[in-house]
Amino acid sequence: MKATSIEKVKELQQDASNIRNICILAHVDHGKTTLADALIASNGIISKRMAGKLRYMDSRDDEQLRGITMKSSAISLHYLLETKEYLVNLIDSPGHVDFGSEVCTAVRLCDGAIVVVDVVEGVCPQTHAVLRQAWLEKLSPILVLNKIDRLITELKFTPDEAHLHLQQVLEQVNAVTGSLYSAEVLEKTGQTESSQVEPVDGEEVVYDWSSGLADTDDSKLYFSPSHGNVVFASAVDGWGFKIQHFSRIFSKKLGIREKILTRTLWGDYYVNTKTKKIMKGAQAKGKKTLFVQFILENLWAIYDAVFIKRDKERSEKITKSLNLNISARDVRVGKSEPRAYLQSICSQWLPLADAVLSSVCQYLPSPSEINGDRVEGLMCAATKSFSALHQESRALKQDFLSCDPTSSTTIVLVSKMVAVEAKLMPQNKPRPLTIEEIMKRREIARQRHAERQEDKENGNSSTENSTPQILDENETSAEELPKNEQNEKNEQFIAFARVFSGTLKVGQTLFVLGPKYDPTSILDLNVSAGTELEEAIESNPHVSQTSVTSIYLWMGRELESLEEAPAGCIVGIGGLEDVVLNSATLCSSMACPPFNALTVDVAPIIRVAVEPYLLSEMNNLVDGLKLLNQADPCVQVMVQETGEHVVIAAGEVHLQRCLDDLKNRFSKIEIKASAPIVPFRETVIKRPKVDVLNELIETQDKNIMQKWSKEKEEKTALSKNGKSKNGSVVIETPNKQSTLVVRAVPLPTDVVKILEEQSDLLKLLSSMEGFIKNIIETIHSQLKIKQETLEQIKQLKSSLEAAFSSAGRRKWSNAVDRIWSFGPRGNGPNILLNNEDDYNRPSIWTCAYVDDDLQNIGMYRECDQSIVSGFQLATLSGPLCEEPMHGVCFVVEEWKISAPPAASTEGQKEQEDRSEDKVVTFKEDEPATPVQNYSQVGLLSGRLISASKEACRRSFQAQPQRLMAAMYTCNVQATAEVLGKVYAVLGRREGRVLSEDLRDGTNSFDIHATLPVAESFGFAEEIRKRTSGLASPQLVFSHWEVVNSDPFWVPTTEEEIQHYGEKADFENQAIKYMNSVRRRKGLFVEEKTVEHAEKQRTLSKNK
Question: Domain Tr-type G spans what residues (predicted)?
Answer without folding.
Answer: 17-273
